[in-house]
Amino acid sequence: MSIALRLALHLPRDAATVPMARRLLDQALRTLGVEPTCRDDIGLILTEACANVIEHARDIDDYEISIEVTDVRCVIHVVNDGSVIDPGRLVLATEMTTTELAATDFAVLDEHGRGLHIIRALADELYLTPATAGGLILRTVTTLRWTADAEIWQRR
């Protein structure tokens, strides 16, 4: 047996939407039986991705989140159609090797420059691509870890 869950949210660019989206995702993952520390990591990924939209995409009124959960992974897309992003600003977070990332002293980074590094450290995969009308699409992939109670999802 396998599972598939899809969540799609169209939200105003407002800071209050960030904890709401995180709680909604956490509750869904908890119900399915995803292990608590895995849920925490995924929640932080979503929080950082949404906070980046709230902070940096000031020329838009709303943004979209889509989440796909299977018995293997959680894929998160956060899309904003705001201003075009300078790709040079994104290279460091997406092209660091695992060794370089592990050696990074996040304490020396500007508080507003840590989000993508945190996402990169927690997600198995991180992709940043330009949105069609400008803005950015952030896509992360995280392998799920299940509680013992969720073993039904592991049978295939």
Automatic annotation (TrEMBL):
Q: What is the organism field in this record?
A: Dactylosporangium maewongense
Write one Pfam family the protein is assigned to: HATPase_c_2
Instruction: Tell me the ranges covered by the Histidine kinase/HSP90-like ATPase domain, including all copies.
Output: 12-137
The protein's name in its UniProt record: Histidine kinase/HSP90-like ATPase domain-containing protein
Task: Give the matching InterPro entries.
Answer: Anti-sigma-factor_SerPK, HATPase_C_sf, HATPase_dom
Sorted keywords for this record are: Kinase, Serine/threonine-protein kinase, Transferase
Q: Does the keyword Iron apply?
A: no
Keyword set includes Transmembrane? no
- SUPFAM superfamilies reported in the protein's UniProt record: ATPase domain of HSP90 chaperone/DNA topoisomerase II/histidine kinase
